[in-house]
Amino acid sequence: MARATPRDDERPPGEELSSYAPIGDGRTVALIGMRGQVDWLPIPNLSSLPVFARLIDDETGGCIELEPVDEYTVTRRYVAGTNVLRTTFTTAKGKATVTDALVTGVAGRLPWAELARRVDGVSGAVAFAWRVRPGTSLGTASPWIERRESGPVIRSGETSIAVVGSDHGQRSASPEGYPEISGRLTTKKGSRHLLIVVATHDEPVHLPDPAIVDEGIDRTIAAWRTWSREFSYDGRWPSQVQRSALALKLLIFSPSGAIAAAATSSLPESPRGEKNWDYRFAWVRDLAYTTHALVRFGLREETHAAISWLLRTIRDNGPELHIFYGLDGDVPAGVREYDVAGWRGLGPVVTGNPAQGQLQLGVFGDLIGVCRTYVDAGNVLDVATGRMLAEIADRTCDLWRNRDAGMWELPELQHYTSSKMGCWQALDDAIHLAEAGEIAGSIDRWKAERQRVREWIDQHCWSDQRSSYLMYPGSDDLDASVLLHALSGFDRGDRMSTTIDALTAELGSGAHLYRYSGMQHEEFAFVACGFWRAAALACVGRGGEAVAAMDDLVGQGNDVSIFAEMIDPASGEFWGNLPQALSHLALIDAAMTIDELVPGGP
Question: Would the pTM count as exceeding 0.90?
């Protein structure tokens, strides 16, 4: 697409969220825009305050820029089977590619952050300008530059940043005014230039040899491709499913095995702002869905690491089951708001999430369900996990009659239908594990309560008038999260089929769905809900509709097949945090469910 290079005072604040492509190294994630700019990069960990955060702080957030000086067109793609991004810039004078990687080491991730930007001349000559401009870490630090014999080093709080490279044309380090390191380079056919940003937190800074980093880019590509070869999917939508699996891999925090719900914080779900949350935590729900997908893909190492981390973290922070945990295994508490503008001025900007401490009954089904998936794949639970799951099944029996906050983490406590269905799933899966000899407990009690839950739902949560499950008894509202329980097996019959029709009529927009009644007037369509609908259609035997919906939905990611949390069905504009694990998980689960249930795929 053609664009002129904007001056800083002309650049509109807040790039389209769909313009960003993520890269990562198993510890953190960078977001790269169509102009070659890095507008988001927390250091050292994904959950850390971002040193580069122009995404949500246009004035002092900081960025890493690398862009042609002249007017250009741009295309980009991931190197096949990897999370390494390759962008092609074409000007009237020539063409060049930029290959971006968060480099991994010989034996796994590096102990420091290393963003490598390889610029290759393809034809003619292309002049690039670049700069590394650290931010204030959401107003908590004031960066400065130290001049060292080896070159300038940027300090920002406890973070140290250095720039090295080869033929990268470093010209200035500005200790006065706002600190930055900048330069210019010009490609010609066959030329290669390297711009490398290295960073550490409360540690010495390693200054790498650019030649070794150049090799490291190729090693990183090879490592991603090795991982992708272990990935097993041969269904109808191979490229989209593989890209979603790679997006999920970016969200796996390799030091612990935890899986983040998203890579960002505070991106608004609505043009009014306010619904701005930090999703850089590990939700039990999302981790359960991810592990289910990893098992189906045959990815043994990630499966074991994720489920072991989750079970250990629950035990360490027990006896209560929390709905999410920190990536390092703690229980986050509280929300902090920062005095920065937010994306397009839509605040607030926060760390933390107010959902902590809520009762969400569905999490019982998520946890026991992921353990069932693990066992059904041929694995064996340890004794302590068996005891814990039996206790959770007993707790489900005791608590299922209570009101809760529901899957959508709502302030109004109600008898949400999808939460009751989650309790049914918890007991159904506990019975399955007990009958398989994996847990010991009151199986007769679990069977009796499972039946009571089903009868209660049938009696109180179904509306003959609407031919649909309701959001909760006494309400006329609908809730798309009940579609998850076509997949769980609670209902794959006529009631679920007519519920799909009711949801489509009230909350549908093309192949997309809004979350629940009223949200079509407050926010945008929730990406995962559209995929849940496609999967549910397959579960109730409406295979043709399922395939058609899926064909529509998989094409609505951005140019590199990444999805955010929400999408405007009319414009395709992204809203909410990204990349969003639940969106990519829903795509994967829908694809695999449809392939399993609907004949005629490859």
Answer: yes
